[in-house]
């Protein structure tokens, strides 16, 4: 009985393998698609890392170690000033709820 079961299983495996062999396309070589090029390609920018499904890898293993130049142009300075002013305004007492107003709420 055991031999019959093993023989049946072997025939089924061979039949499946033979049917798949006829439908296979050319094997894909490493490097045929850009995502097989590795981290030097994946982590080049966010778009490529997302396309290759490697964004988490790039964040943890590559981008965290990169040194980026400080952006001190006029637009950046204006944005930093605006954010600082907004933070100061929010942290000041003027934005806090006054006790007299709070009783009406």
Question: What can you see in these coordinates?
Answer:
This protein is 58% helix and 0% strand. With 105 residues, it is an all-alpha fold.
Using brief descriptors, characterize the structure shown:
mainly alpha, 105 residues, 0% strand
Q: Largest sheet at a glance?
A: none
Q: Give the fraction of residues assigned to helices.
A: 55-70%
**Number of DSSP strand runs:** 0
- Rg for CA atoms: 31 Å
Unreliable stretches: none
Total number of helices: 6
Mean pLDDT, as a whole number? Answer: 76
Report the order of strands and helices: HHHHHH
Q: Oligomer, anyone?
A: single chain
Approximate strand percentage: under 5%
Distance between the termini: 83 Å
**Which descriptor suits the 3D outline?**
elongated
Tell me the structural class. mainly alpha
Quick overview of this protein structure:
The chain has helices at residues 2-23, 39-42, 46-51, 55-61, 74-91, 99-102. With 105 residues, the chain is mostly helical. The radius of gyration is 31 Å and the shape is elongated.
């Amino acid at each position: 009985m055991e031999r019959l079961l093993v023989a049946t299983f072997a025939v089924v495996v061979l039949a499946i393998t033979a049917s798949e062999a006829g439908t296979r396309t050319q094997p894909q070589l490493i490097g045929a698609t850009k995502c097989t090029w590795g981290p030097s390609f994946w982590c080049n920018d966010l778009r490529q890392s997302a396309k290759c499904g490697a964004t988490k890898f790039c964040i943890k293993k590559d981008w965290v170690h990169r040194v980026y130049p400080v952006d001190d142009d006029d637009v950046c300075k204006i944005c930093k000033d605006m954010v600082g002013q907004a933070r100061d305004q929010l942290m000041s007492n003027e934005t806090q709820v006054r006790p007299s107003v709070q009783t009406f709420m």
